[in-house]
From TrEMBL:
Family: Belongs to the universal stress protein A family.
InterPro entries: Rossmann-like_a/b/a_fold, Universal_stress_UspA, UspA
Regions crossing the membrane: none
SUPFAM superfamilies: Adenine nucleotide alpha hydrolases-like
Protein name according to UniProt: Universal stress protein
Sequence ranges assigned to domain UspA in this UniProt record: 1-142
Superkingdom per UniProt: Bacteria
Length: 142
C-alpha cells in the first residue's frame, strides 16, 4: 500500500491529531515516515536595505521536528526521521511538495485548517494547494 509517508507538521496543537493518525497508519502498514516542518521567513524591504525576518528560530523549528519524531517513536513507529526546511512565507506548499518528491513519498499527511467565508478567499491554504498539486495521495486531518 504505502511505503514512504511524508507528514508535514507545524507548532500548533492540531499537529497532535496529525501525528496520531500518522502513527496509527504507519504502524499498521510498516511504512517509513519523514517528519517535515517548514520554517517560514519574511523578506522585508528596509528602505533599500532588505532583510529576512524569521517567524521562528531554527532551534524552535528543530524542536518541532524532534518532538514529532519522538511522539511517533513512542507510538511504535520505528522507521522515522526528521527534516526541516526554510522557505519564504507563501511558498510553504512548494516546500512540502518538493520534499515529498525528494523523499519519494507515496502519501502526504498534513492538517487541514478551516478558514470560513471571506477569510478563505484571501488567506489561501497550504493544505488546499498541496492537495490539488500533489502527484501522490494526500490525507488531510481536520
Amino acid at each position: 500500500m504505502y511505503e514512504r509517508i511524508l507528514v508535514a507538521v507545524d507548532s500548533t496543537p492540531e499537529a497532535d491529531d496529525v501525528l496520531a493518525h500518522t502513527a496509527r497508519l504507519a504502524g499498521a502498514i510498516g511504512a517509513a515516515v519523514r517528519v517535515l516542518h517548514v520554517q517560514t521567513l519574511d523578506v522585508v524591504d528596509g528602505g533599500g536595505v532588505g532583510g529576512v525576518v524569521e517567524d521562528e528560530t531554527a532551534d524552535a523549528a528543530v524542536k518541532v521536528v524532534t518532538g514529532a519524531v519522538d511522539t511517533l517513536r513512542a507510538a511504535g513507529v520505528t522507521n522515522v526521521e526528521g527534516w526541516t526546511e526554510e522557505t519564504v512565507r507563501g511558498d510553504v506548499p512548494n516546500a512540502v511538495l518538493d520534499q515529498a518528491r525528494a523523499f519519494g513519498a507515496d502519501l502526504l499527511i498534513l492538517g487541514a485548517r478551516r478558514h470560513g467565508g471571506v477569510a478563505s478567499l484571501f488567506l489561501g491554504s497550504v493544505s488546499d494547494t498541496v492537495a490539488h498539486r500533489s502527484v501522490c495521495p494526500v490525507l488531510l486531518i481536520p
